[in-house]
């Protein structure tokens, strides 16, 4: 984790927090640091858009449940959390981690690093399961793999 | 016309009590857990999310449990719940080319970069009932290997045809798409509005229409250029942050069809496209959607109106929503005593008239 919490770091952290299982995040951040709630956790939806033909004009596919919250730490850092699903504590923790990262990146590394590793591992397992079902009948004439 | 009735409260309460008991089933059996429904009835959950037009596997599982497995009733519950939630915004269009695929097949090209990946499919099974599921409740499933692999790099198959100019391109108009959940649908509907309606449409209705195009009613000879299922990241611009972040991940099914080419004096012959995109692992729906999308495009592609149902946007779009359909259909079982009394009176009078005349 770098010394500063750049926009790229923040973006990555917020994405990880949004997808993390709420229970896992609660384990990694059991005690909430002192904070002021700027926007109480709110459950809503986000319209997911797709593109006609995968690359063409946008269309509205359907909604996904999302919960958001905003807080301010006593040091003044403002954090925003947007997480998938309807778990208010999850959104609050995401906002807290966002603000804590701005105050001190080293403090959130022990939360973000396991989340990143666990997500990578979950994805790698699915990728391996998928790879095992790859059709291998035509290996002699298969196109170049990239 | 519907005229309200009064009374029957006691009977209605008793009916709902009975429903509660019927819903639970015999007390000596364990109750179904919504997590079990979410994970073991995942394809039903996918359908409820797709047609309920709300991605939330836990809620879909709850709706299925509450609806006693009646998926249209479950979709109804999801649609009703959705209306209680504020809309926080709209995502950037998802990048299905970057999908972490667990299934990806092409019926048009056998050799594609990334390969053909079957995934957890019913294809090639024998469709024989497996009585072991009944006897022990579970199969001696082979344990997941636990192996870790690299995500598959799987570019869109139709991109290769597009590169060679053999298929119509799919340009981005850059316009904000219309939203039928905000503004009532109006005809003529552009393709973005049609795709939204089809994405939440009843699977059975679309399947029947798609099948009709295959049998010759607005035949356009579809091949599945690519069918893929997997996880896609959802990203949204957050005004208070001033940049976009990933707000979640959804499982999608995408079907791109390659259809009969057309050419003219000015345009070289090329293939055309149909498109299906749905929540969850819902491939029958996604393929049906792509076929119906293609059939509805006859006008913009300068094709002939064959008068087929699948070509008629008014017919398709006004009847594809199973909640609208079931609402109107099922209301006729509710008391219509006053209407019917009037009709009865009329028939009696007409009959009296004929008898007098004879």
Structural commentary:
Chain A is of the alpha+beta class and 146 residues long. Chain A is 44% helix and 27% strand. Chain A has one domain (7-132). Chain A contains 4 helices and 3 strands; from the N terminus they run ααβββαα. In chain A, strand 1 (35-51) and strand 2 (58-73) form a beta hairpin. In chain A, helix 1 packs antiparallel against helix 3. The relative contact order of chain A is 0.18. The mean pLDDT of chain A is 92. Chain B contains 13 helices and 6 strands. Chain B has helices spanning 9-24, 34-40, 42-52, 57-66, 71-82, 132-135, 158-163, 191-199, 203-214, 283-296, 313-319, 322-331, 337-357; strands spanning 54-55, 87-93, 100-105, 223-238, 243-262, 270-279. In chain B, strands 3-4-5-6 form a 4-stranded antiparallel beta sheet. In chain B, a hairpin with a 7-residue loop joins strand 5 and strand 6. The radius of gyration of chain B is 25 Å and the shape is globular. Chains A and B meet through helix 1, strand 1, strand 2, strand 3 and helix 4 of A and strand 1, strand 2, strand 3, helix 8 and strand 4 of B.
Computed structural class of chain B: alpha+beta
Question: How many strand segments of chain B?
Answer: 6
Task: State the helicity of chain A in percent bands.
Answer: 40-55%
Helix-strand topology string of chain B: HHHEHHEEHHHHEEEHHHH
Write down the domain tally of chain A. Answer: 1
What is the N-to-C succession of helices and strands of chain A?
HHEEEHH
Oligomer: heterodimer
The major β-sheet of chain B equals: 4 strands, antiparallel
GO molecular function, one term (chain B): lyase activity
Keywords (chain B): Lyase
Pfam families (chain B): PhnI
Protein name (chain B): Alpha-D-ribose 1-methylphosphonate 5-triphosphate synthase subunit PhnI
């Amino acid at each position: 984790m770098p010394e500063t919490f750049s926009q790229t770091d923040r973006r990555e952290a917020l994405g990880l927090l949004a997808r993390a299982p709420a229970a896992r995040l609660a384990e990694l951040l059991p005690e909430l640091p002192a904070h002021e709630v700027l926007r109480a956790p709110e459950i809503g939806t986000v319209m997911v858009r797709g593109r006609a033909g995968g690359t063409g004009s946008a269309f509205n596919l359907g909604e996904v449940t999302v919960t958001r919250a905003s807080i301010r730490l006593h040091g003044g850092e403002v954090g925003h959390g947007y997480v998938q699903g309807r778990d208010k504590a999850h959104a609050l923790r995401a906002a807290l981690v966002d603000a804590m990262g701005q105050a001190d990146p080293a403090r959130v590394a022990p939360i973000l690093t396991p989340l990143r590793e666990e997500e990578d591992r979950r994805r790698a397992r699915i990728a391996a399961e998928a790879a095992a079902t790859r059709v291998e009948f035509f290996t002699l004439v298969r196109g170049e793999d990239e | 016309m519907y005229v309200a009735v009064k009374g029957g409260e006691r009977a209605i309460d008793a009916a709902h009590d009975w429903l509660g008991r019927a819903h639970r089933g015999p007390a000596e059996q364990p109750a179904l857990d919504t997590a079990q429904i979410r994970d073991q009835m995942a394809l039903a959950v996918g359908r409820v999310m797709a047609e309920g037009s709300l991605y939330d596997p836990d809620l879909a599982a709850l709706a299925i449990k509450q609806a006693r497995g009646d998926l249209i009733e479950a979709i109804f519950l999801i649609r009703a719940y959705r209306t209680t939630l504020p809309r926080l915004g709209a995502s950037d269009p998802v990048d299905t080319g970057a999908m972490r695929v667990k299934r990806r097949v092409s019926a048009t090209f056998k050799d594609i970069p990334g390969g053909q990946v079957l995934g957890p499919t019913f294809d090639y099974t024998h469709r024989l009932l497996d009585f072991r599921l009944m006897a022990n409740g579970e199969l001696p499933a082979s344990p997941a290997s636990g192996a870790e692999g690299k995500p598959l790099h799987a570019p869109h198959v139709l991109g290769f045809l597009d590169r060679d100019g053999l298929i119509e391109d799919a340009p981005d108009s850059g316009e904000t798409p219309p939203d039928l959940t905000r503004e009532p649908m109006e005809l003529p509907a552009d393709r973005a509005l049609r795709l939204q309606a089809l994405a939440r449409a009843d699977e059975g209705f679309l399947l029947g229409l798609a099948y009709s195009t295959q049998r010759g009613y607005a035949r356009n000879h579809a091949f599945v250029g690519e069918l893929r299922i997997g996880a896609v990241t959802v990203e949204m611009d957050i005004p208070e942050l001033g940049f976009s972040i990933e707000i979640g991940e959804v499982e999608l099914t995408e079907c791109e069809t390659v259809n009969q080419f057309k050419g003219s004096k000015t345009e070289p012959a090329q293939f055309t496209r149909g498109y299906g995109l749905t929540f969850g692992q819902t491939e029958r729906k996604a393929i049906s959607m792509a076929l119906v999308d293609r059939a509805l495009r006859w006008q913009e592609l300068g094709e002939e109106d064959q008068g087929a149902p699948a070509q008629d946007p008014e017919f398709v779009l006004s009847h594809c929503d199973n909640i609208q359909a079931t609402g109107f259909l099922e209301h006729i079982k509710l008391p219509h005593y006053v209407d019917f009394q009037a009709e009865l009176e009329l028939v009696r009078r007409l009959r009296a008239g004929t008898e007098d005349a004879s």
